[in-house]
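Section 3.1: Structural characterization of target chains.
Under the original work plan, the team committed to producing a structural model for every single-chain target entering the pipeline before any wet-lab resources were allocated. The record below documents one such target. The sequence was received from the expression subgroup and is listed exactly as submitted; it comprises 316 residues.
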Amino acid sequence: MIKQIAIVILQIFIIIALAPLLGGIIKKIKAFFQLRKGPGVFQPYYDIAKLLQKDSVVSQNVSWLFHAAPIISFAAVLTAGLLIPIFITEMPFGFAGDLIAVVYLFALARFFIALASLDAGSSFGGMGGSREMFVASLVEPALMLSIFAVALNVGSTNLSYISQTVSAMGLDALSPYQILAFAALFIIAIAETGRIPIDNPATHLELTMIHEAMILEYSGKQLAIVELGAMMKQLLVFSLLANIFFPWGIATGAGLAAIFIALLVYAVKIVILGATMAMVETSTAKWRLFRLPELLSVSLMLSFLAIVSFIIVKGG
């Protein structure tokens, strides 16, 4: 019981502590490829600390929903983090939910932020909320299908069991359907984390912003909670990529040595994924909104092909 509590506390600490660092690393790598100095990797920590010291300026027209949305969104993302294996496969809350629960927790966080953007009555907020729901309608089915391809192989949608089983397979897990599913989920990760070419997190231009438009009315402590929640979601999506498709190195027991090694391996995988995402952003231009279904439909088709290839390979 004490070990399980320690694992939960350590997982919460890792999610909250490493999420801003991942954002700082991505910004630093992007600046390197763009031949700029860029902000330091610890700048997101300073930004969040600065926002936590400020008061929130709130419109008189908002309801309780505007104040509750950041907390509900943050709690939903953190709860999803307790269902996703990060450094160990024996998740204490693994019995409470699986892949479907994680997808719906992400959707719950998105839903309340979109509602809050409408609650303020801002035209920018309404625009950002409608765009977010438009992208979500294409992302969520592809997200579920991409991991279903791996779930079919192991016979379960429990993420801890998937990670443990794929890790035990070794290099035999690198099958055609798993590679197709990984490519689909990587495209989905671009959309879920608001990256170029789907969104541009570094701008407030009317024609390009989606996530930033929804949170324009937030400030101070509330903005800090929203921003930290978005960083945590980014880390968790990368964790799905790292520990569902390439879970080698993850600890299968509660030994201290195994956990320490697993944390090091996890950090390396997350940095590699962050660098890859930064390279994709640097080499790609922002797409027009009405072209986004073309890219997101590719992820849906790759997910579908992954399932079809699994049926062909196993059936043959």
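Residues 2-315 form one domain.
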